[in-house]
Amino acid sequence: MASSLDREVKKLPTLRGRTVVNLFYESSTRTLASFELAAKRLSADTMSLRSSGSSADKGESLRDTASTLSAYDPDVIVVRHPSIGAAGLVARYTGASVVNAGDGKHQHPTQALLDLYAMEKALGRLEGLHVAIVGDALHSRVARSLVQALVLVGARSTLIGPPTLVPRSFEALGCSTSNDIRDLAEADVVYVLRMQQERMSPGEAFIPSLREYTALYGITQERVLPGQVVMHPGPMNRGVEIDARVADSGAALVSDQVRAGLVVRMAVLYDVLTTAAAHEQVVAEVAQWSLH
Amino acid sequence: MVSPLMLFSRNGRGDSLTLEGRVLAPAQGIDECLRITVTDGVIAAIEPAAASALVIAPAFVDPHVHLRTPGREDEETLRSGTEAAAAGGYCAILAMPNTEPVVDTAAVLGALIELARAEAVVPTGFMAAISKSQGGEELTEMAELAFVGAAAFTDDGKPVVSAGLMRRALQYSALAGRPLALHCEEPALSRGGHAHEGRVSAEIGLGPYPSTAESLMVERDLALAAAEERPLHLMHLSARESVGALRRARNEGIPATAEVTPHHLCLTDEAVRSLDPNFKMNPPLRSEDDRRVLIDALRDGVIPAVATDHAPHARHEKDVPFEDAPFGVTGLETSFAALHTYLVLPGELTLETLLERMSTGPARAFGLAEPRIETGARANLVALDLEAEWEVTEDGFRSLSANSWLLGNTLRGRVVRTVADGREVFVA
Question: Would the pTM of this model clear 0.95, i.e. be above it?
Answer without folding.
Answer: no
